[in-house]
Write a structure and sequence with these properties.
308 residues, mainly alpha, Na+/H+ antiporter like fold, 0% strand, globular
């Protein structure tokens, strides 16, 4: 139990940033889109570039984003097939999107910086590429199915600044060009800023929804079962198979997989709900509740796994 409390204490300050984000939007008139622009066009690309240049890429590390992208895509299509007809609006599409990913960026990266050393945190950030590609390929398709062409989806992906940063970073990494040590401290400050502003973004999204009108018990129940039970159980099964038969990964990479699987619902679920006009307040409430649940779920999951 001492380990659980230690983990809880480590995680709890992240929720202070959520509260600060809500306060900034409600009382200081801070605009969410301005903070989002900083994260998407400046801070995010610098974080991805520095991490991708620094990570030591081998077959084991490369396996992580490839597997998680494919696994998330399978879950999304399966969820759309099974539950897509349960609502008369695009709620089923939003459910499919949220089932295949999680808040691996704004929430996961701060956790990685808390629990991992710099090298392993960089591997985690490298692995977040799986979520980036999923959300803008498979996730975009299952959410906007029938509304957008493949060409429009491709243009959207090509314009992503973080994807450009990843391509530059991986190219420099392959060429053997690493980030100079003199710039490491500078880039680390952007990682911290990304975590702080990303968590504040969650709080900024809480202003405006009506709990009595936007509570969809069925949506919450299905999404929570997939996110908090199916995802961790599947990753534990993968770890067992690798330890027993494959032996491709190691204990550090197991930790990356575990962290990837236990973060709450993705914040971008709300953005895509806005795109489809599919009750974005409903999505906001679900993301918020999953984030609140994670206060206890994440330290409990890490405690049961043995702690980091």
């Amino acid at each position: 139990m001492n380990i659980f409390l230690i983990l809880l204490v480590k995680i709890f300050p992240l929720y202070i940033n959520v509260g600060l984000g809500f306060f900034a939007t409600k009382y200081l008139d801070v605009q969410r889109h301005s903070v989002a622009a900083l994260l998407i066009y400046i801070i995010g690309p610098i974080v991805v570039l520095s991490a991708t240049m620094s990570v030591e890429i081998n077959a084991s590390v490369a396996f992580l984003p490839i597997f998680l992208y494919i696994f998330g895509s399978i879950i999304a299509f399966a969820t759309l097939f099974i539950f897509g007809k349960n609502w008369n609006d695009p709620t089923g599409n939003i459910l499919a999107f949220s089932s295949g990913t999680g808040n691996t960026g704004y929430f996961g990266i701060p956790l990685a910086l808390i629990f991992f050393d710099t090298a392993l945190a960089n591997i985690y950030i490298f692995t977040v590429l799986a979520s980036l590609l999923y959300e803008n390929t498979t996730g975009f398709y299952v959410t906007a199915k029938g509304n957008f062409t493949a060409k429009q989806s491709l243009v959207k992906i090509i314009k992503l600044p973080i994807l450009h940063a990843f391509i530059v970073g991986i190219t420099l990494n392959i060429m053997g060009i690493k980030l100079p040590e003199e710039l490491t401290f500078y880039s680390d400050q952007f990682k911290s800023s990304y975590g702080i502003l990303g968590m504040m973004m969650l709080g900024m999204g809480l202003h405006g929804f009506n709990k009595s009108e936007d509570l969809d018990v069925k949506f919450i129940k299905i999404s929570f079962i997939i996110k908090f039970i199916f995802w961790p159980a599947s990753i534990l099964a993968l770890i067992y198979l690798d330890k027993t038969f494959i032996q491709l990964l190691n204990e550090d990479l197991y930790k990356v997989l575990i962290l990837f699987s236990i973060v709450p619902l993705a914040g971008n679920t709300v953005s895509l709900a806005v795109l489809l006009n599919a009750k974005p307040e409903k999505a906001s409430l679900s993301v918020f509740l999953s984030t609140v649940l994670s206060i206890l779920f994440i330290p409990l999951a890490l405690y049961l796994y043995g702690g980091f």
